[in-house]
Write a structure and sequence with these properties.
With 176 residues, this protein is mainly alpha-helical. 62% of the residues lie in helices and 2% in strands. It is built from 10 helices and 2 strands. Helix 6 packs across helix 7. The longest helix is centred in the middle third of the chain and has 22 residues. The two termini are 22 Å apart.
Amino acid sequence: IASYHQNILRARGGLLSPRRAWEALRDGLARGAEASSRGPFTLSLAEASTRMRAEGRYLQTYWGGAAIVLLVDVALRQCGGGTVDDVFAELRSEQPVVDVRRVDADEFVARAAARAAKGGAAACGHVKADVDAALARPFPDVLPLLEALGVRPGALDDKAPLAALRRQISARPAAL
């Protein structure tokens, strides 16, 4: 969650340009994907996360989690289910003092999936299955999504199919 938000929130706050924020996210995801292929054998992201501390699988785990949060955020926005920020706000409203280390990932995914499913489109009912599939791989395949969002080396493509969603994700809130 933090790896996903660290640059996106700085763009929203005006501390980074959207281009730089998306480049940093893309670069981090690339480092995580590369780390997931190291060693004599590869582990699923789910298994790597259980072995993170013992085997030093931090890049794979943190950036794999960031990839999943990106997938979920885009799915929620496409389905009219809000955003990942809305899911976290919902969780916070039920437990105002949230220790982020104790936010259950399964609960987060279940809430996000329920929000996406309310959108009604057939593709909106697959958030949980998409997350499960991502966890079963060494690293989620987010390169096609980044391309669709218009995140390209050295530039943002505003003509990409999901460029409007990319702009929404990193846009400065009206309240700031």
